[in-house]
Each structure stands twice: as C-alpha cells, then as structure tokens.
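Page header: ASSEMBLY MODEL / two components / 431 residues total.
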Amino acid sequence: MWKIIGTGITQAFNQRTIFRKLSFEIKSGESLVLVGPNGSGKTTLIRIVCNLLHPIEGKVEFYYGNETKMAGQLYSSIGMVGPYLQLYNNLTAFENYAFFRKIRGLNVDHGHFKILMKKFGLAGREFDELRTYSSGMLQRMKYVCALLHSPPILILDEPVSNLDESGERIIYDVMEEQKRSNILIFATNNPEEIKFGDKKIRLAV
Amino acid sequence: MIRKSGLLYKSFYILQKDLHQEFRTRYAINAIFLFAITTLVVVSFSIGAAELSQNILSSLLWIIIFFSAMTGLSHVFVREEEQQTADTLKLVAPPVAIYLGKLLFNILLLLGLELILIPLYVVFMDMSVGNLPVFILMIVLGSTGVSAVATIMAAIISRTSAKGALFAVLSFPVMLPVLILSIQGTALAIQGSSISAGMDEIQMLLLFIIVIVTASILLFEFVWIL
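Prediction written out in full:
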C-alpha cells in the first residue's frame, strides 16, 4: 500500500507566490485531480510531487507500508506523462522502450512491448524513429514508456493532450484501471477527466 | 556481484543510449572531428617546413584536443535540455548514474577522435614518438581529465543561454592543470623519456582525475536536479 503525503507546500517564482501551504494525502486505490486556470500552478505542483522541483517550503513524503521512501528509491515506482517530458526522438519506439525498461532494472520483453504498442494503437510502428511520429502518436508512446513498469504511482499532466477520440478512450481506461488499486494524480481542466478524481485540489491564480 | 539495476549498469545503459543516439545523428562526432581535422590542417600549413621542438609539438597537439573538446563535449547535456528529455531522464535514473554514463561517453568520444587525429598529426607534423607506451598513457590520462572537467561543466552550462561561450570560459581555468601536465608528459614521451621520467605528470594527472570525478559526483545532484 503506497501513500503520498504533501505538507505545507509553498512555491514562488521571482517573489510571486504560486500557491501557499498546500497539503494533501493520497493512498493506493485513490486518485487526486488538480484543477485551476492557466498559471495557477498545476504543473508546478506536479513537478514538486515528482521531485523535479523543490518547493521553497513544505515537503512531499512517499510511504510504502510504514516505510518512508526517499526520492532515490522511487525511480521504479513512478510513471509520468506530461507535455514537458519528451522521449528520445532519434531512437525507435523499441529502443526507447528497451532503454526505459533496462534503466529501471527490468528485462526487455518483446511480447510485453508488442502488447503495449497494440494497446495504445501503435502496432506496426515499433521500429520507426519517434521523429516520424505525429504529436498524437508521441503522446501515446509516452504512455507506453510511462506504463512499461506497471508503476504503483501514475502522474499525468494534461492526460489527453494531442489525442484523438480513440486515444482519449484508451487513456480514460488506463486512468480507471490505475485508480482501482494504485495511485493516480493528474492535472486537467477537462470536465470529462475531472470525474476520475476522488480528491480534488483547486488552485487559483 | 553487480545487480542489473545497480548504479554501474544504469551508467552503462545511459552510455549505450547516448552512443546509439550519437551514431544515428552524428551531431557531436561531426562537430568534433571536422574541427580537429580543420585545425590540424591549418596548423600544419602555417608551420610549413619549420622544425619544431618536442614541447611545441606537444603544445600544438593539446591545443587542438582542447578546442575540439570544447566544440563537442557539451552535447551530452545540451542535447538532453534542447530535446526536453532531461526531466524524463531525471525521473528514471539517479544523478550519479547519469553523470558516470555521460562521463564515459565523453571519454570514448575524445579517445575516438584521438585515434584518428594523432596518426594524422604524426604524418602532417612529421613527428616521431620516442616512447609510444608513455605517449599513449599521457594521451589517455590527459583525455580522461579533459573529459571529466568538460562533463561537469556541460551539466552546469546546459540550461544557460550562451552555452558555447560559457562552456569554454568556465572549463579553461579548471582544465588548465590537466593541459599543462599533459603537455609536459606528452613532450617527454615524444623525446623518448622513460616512464620514470614522466612519473610526476602521471601521478598528478591521476590525482586530478580522482579529485575532479569525486567532486563532480558530489556536486552533480545539485547541478542536475535544481
């Protein structure tokens, strides 16, 4: 059972406070949605949760059972998709998959790769360089790489950006499945997606 | 026994990924090789038939290596920032593994360059090497030192706007001891001196590499994450 506790998180850029004293708690089987207008700090909060950014105050702690997990122990536990997280465009889909599997200490599994590519509608493009993919296909590929280790914590920023209707349906299924027994944190303003959140943080400009 | 998910394995996977990318795009390879060969030709023509001392031959060689390194070794981190893959990498691998992977890549890139550059230098400059094993040792140690400095500096400058200029300006003062020692050691090897004559340079170079790699490992997390 995983648990994430954020306490008193404050962030500011150039003396402009983005949010102040934010706290939340989420555990396996729950989902948290961050909503708010552009510039309200949704992405900033997501980046803080992922340890890509340090808040000026407060902290985010990860627990597995009663054991605290430090940032360096989370590489195999977090999967993330966001507009600012890109894949290696001059490598093929398979090479990206193989790199992200190996770096997480997992063996490269061709069968698993094919299943994931089929699930996200990318079958037949396994050995093409990602620079030949459309933006929607790249978004789908980001999900392949974010889910290849079945992460107990999935963090999504604008989950369905660039996706067509069929892509959106696939992602909604992923989100539904993730929140059933794992942790799902996502930032959106799309009413279709907000309903996937059990808990909500509303940020204001 | 090293676990497949251990630090060294992760460094190796990052190196493997960088090599893969590099051989596909040849971005750094083209920059570094073209610069080195062009500089060598310019130096060779400007020297003409003049007979040069070992010290001058050694200095010119290391000047070419230094400026070639300044042209290509920053790509390891600049590419991650420009392609917006730096954050993706931060999420999947510990900073130390990333630093070591990138360092190994830069060492291999520089040694690869020298494998082509040095035979050409020997021919163009009409140079004979008195003690080849010591010469190779000096080149390998000097290149490792240059790569070690270049790698941490590349990480520092990768998010700045004037990357190229800053890289050379910041690297040069830190790299100066390596260059001086490498020039002295290489001159001794060209003269044909024995390994014992160059022991001071070898020891100092080894010490420098250990210090700069250790300091880089300790500092890299702050440079990379923040």
